[in-house]
Amino acid sequence: MKSDIEIAREAKLLPIKDVAAKVGISEDRLELYGKYKAKITNEWWEENKDKPNGKLILVTAINPTPAGEGKTTTSVGLSDAFSRLGKKCVVALREPSLGPCFGIKGGAAGGGYAQVVPMEDLNLHFTGDFHAITSANNLLAAILDNHIQQGNELNIDPRNVVFKRCMDMNDRVLRNIVIGLGNKSDGTVREDHFVITVATEIMAVLCLSEDLKDLKDRLSKIIVAYDYSGNPVTAGQLKCVGSMAALLKDAIKPNLIQTMEHTPAIVHGGPFANIAHGCNSVRATRYALKMADYVITEAGFGADLGAEKFFDIKCRKAGLKPDCVVLVATIRALKYNGGVLKEDLSKENLDALKKGIVNLEKHMENLKLYGVPVVVTLNDFVSDTQAERDFVKDFVKARGCEFALSKVWELGGEGGVELANTVIDTINGCESNFKPLYEDSLPLKEKIEKVATCIYGAKDVSFTKESEKMLKKLTDMGFSDLPVCMAKTQYSLSDDQTLLGRPEGFTLNVRDVYISAGAGFVVALTGQIMTMPGLSKNPAAYTIDVDDDGNITGLF
After folding, report:
1. Which value, to the nearest 10 degrees, does the dihedral of the CA atoms of residues 335, 339, 340, 345 take?
2. pTM beyond 0.85
3. Which of 211, 265, 290, 452 has its CA 20 to 30 A from that of 547?
4. pLDDT in tens, 314-373
5. How far apart are CA 213 and CA 41, in angstroms?
6. What angle do CA 379, 384, 386 make, to 5 degrees?
7. Which is it for the CA torsion 270, 271, 277, 278, positive or negative?
8. Which residues are catalytic?
């Protein structure tokens, strides 16, 4: 069996200008990064922003397991299936992070014969967006500490600095550090922290900004610290918004590449859904909606994280209205939720499937809360049996959702035609009555409780004294109308990653709360979730290499 990178390397790519021409983008509206990558200029948007929107289709999934689900693979294959049916389609995805690429998860270009290409470029440096975000973040951190060193005119309390440095790599030893050691000229000694780039507020700001003006406005609102009187200090007060925007002026432009079947793919932004809002950029989605009749996009991890934040943060902030949701599951993952060991997942086990399918059931129920039609798809594996497929299909149909089988990993767009036709029929036959889960006016604490009880299935929510205090402070500061961004393990509906299936009767534990004023949401940290991941005992980096001719191996 060929690896993903071998399959991707055999793909015959079209020049990106020819891919752009499929959706009406002329070469003079592209900024080329070689033959197969480009950024779309601001001028293209100004010329096309008044066009009607296409249909917006979100692809989400059950909670991830070691068995694999294939959400990005399904997104890519579904877009190719639309193209095969003669539909004008664009897929809009997030950019991969180097952290999981060299860690445990691998890349994020799809898989098999449903990939976006060039795969190696995308999974590594791509067009430099993440480097720009990292640089802008760390510039602000450097300006902050320099301000304290140079007289501290803003009276910043070094014990109450909340802005963190970042890097786009898993490095647990940087979670909690001490800086400023050495001579007096080396700065003020204080505790500091690192987060992974995809969890930074700068990433969220870039992904939620409408244009450069909005970007600068959001950057200026970032709260970096509090002064000795407890008042917030912002990036705007530190006078570095312009220089940060200069670093981000190209990163804010959406990137255009292609699928292996030459469907246009906009890949832009990459916040994690377990610790950030988990969606590609608003600009990318808006651009795609003006280009195509159908836009396929995805949101990170399970529907309890990515889809919830897509609906309650991205759609709320950007005024987007999704027309359909595709919920991806695999029989292997459902059996894993039913207690089957990874090495035994290839064996037929209807009892385990019946036990584990409750995870899919809960996600189906959750998505219906938003008023958007739901199509469930099984990402098919050769080890799946017909009895198992029939059981899942009957289960889904009995609960009022449409069902289709997907074989895009093996067959590319051809393997997604059944799913594409089902999605089209669903959109044509069911009107979307999208609405967010909660109103802006709901108090912050009640928003957290709403997500926890309605989406996760928690019995109740426990708040630490620190989180209660911060919720009151943020309310007093005027932030109570913002949505909440829940930081939670992706592996369970609860905040305990060992509780698989559909946990019930549990208490969700909120240990801390903080404001992302530039992004426009309040973050609630639950359980043991970390904003800087660590590497496993045998990270993917061990198997990645490059030969004497410059060919990369081991990337997946």
Report:
1. 20
2. yes
3. 265
4. 999 999 999 999 999 999 999 999 999 999 999 999 999 999 999 999 999 999 999 999
5. 15
6. 105
7. positive
8. 71, 73, 94, 105, 273, 301, 381, 409
